[in-house]
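Anyone up for a design puzzle?
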């Protein structure tokens, strides 16, 4: 599917929130599922934009918000270096979990009102900190399917300015399906952390799957030494399997 893209802007808590929007190019009256897609701490870099376009090409309207819009100027993305990592982490530490949640609700509402989105078919996905943010998106009652790629802080509660986001303790609120994807060699989500997540999801009665690949943290990012093309392709296929089994085929839903 051919994809067109834009950078629409909405307002959340009196702050402009810019997002990258990737949309299937269609010539007939169809509606598609809407996915809020969260970046890592570096915001909307080249790898993130390419991931959005790839997902949209399978028949989804994909919205990737700038997660630090209260702090950074619109259009700011950080380099994959020490300075960029420090800046991204500092911005995360200045943002309250409630603010991340407000952004999530606003982007989901934007998608639900989009003219080619089926409002009953909303989902979420994200990388690294975005994996945690997508987990929190799954707490929203209208999110039907969520994919968390090596989400940091889920197992120990670390997210943003709050000492403990309490995300895992709230897992019982998840109504949709959940897919957790990890790398075996990820120091940010070690084996004991992955087992803690698995146990909590099972006890909460969440409909979930966990997939672990022989890869490092950020293995989906198609820049840098940790990129693993094979594992990335397999994990993308896992995401597509969940979304298609939940929402139906990607050719669009007749309006």
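Challenge accepted. My sequence:
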């Amino acid at each position: 599917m051919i994809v067109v893209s834009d950078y629409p802007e909405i307002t959340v808590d009196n702050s402009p929130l810019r997002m990258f929007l990737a949309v299937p190019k269609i010539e007939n009256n169809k509606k598609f599922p809407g996915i809020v897609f969260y970046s890592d701490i570096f915001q909307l870099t080249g790898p993130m934009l390419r991931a959005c376009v790839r997902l949209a090409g399978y028949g989804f309207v994909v919205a990737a918000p700038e997660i630090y819009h209260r702090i950074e100027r619109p259009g700011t993305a950080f380099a994959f270096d020490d300075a960029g990592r420090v800046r991204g982490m500092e911005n995360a530490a200045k943002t309250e979990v409630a603010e991340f949640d407000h952004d999530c609700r606003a982007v989901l509402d934007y998608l639900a009102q989009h003219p080619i989105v089926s409002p009953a078919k909303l989902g979420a996905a994200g990388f690294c900190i975005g994996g945690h943010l997508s987990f929190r998106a799954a707490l929203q009652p209208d999110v039907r399917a969520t994919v968390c790629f090596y989400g940091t802080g889920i197992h120990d509660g670390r997210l943003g300015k709050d000492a403990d986001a309490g995300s895992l303790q709230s897992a019982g609120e998840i109504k949709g399906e959940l897919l957790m994807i990890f790398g075996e060699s990820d120091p940010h989500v070690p084996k004991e952390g992955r087992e803690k997540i698995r146990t909590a999801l099972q006890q909460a009665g969440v409909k979930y799957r966990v997939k672990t690949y022989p890869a490092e943290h950020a293995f989906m990012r198609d820049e840098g030494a940790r990129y693993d093309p094979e594992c990335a392709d397999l994990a993308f296929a896992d995401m597509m399997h969940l979304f298609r089994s939940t929402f139906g085929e990607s050719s669009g839903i007749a309006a």
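A detail worth pointing out: The beta strands are 3-6, 9-12, 15-24, 30-38, 61-65, 117-127, 143-149, 177-183, 207-213, 253-254.
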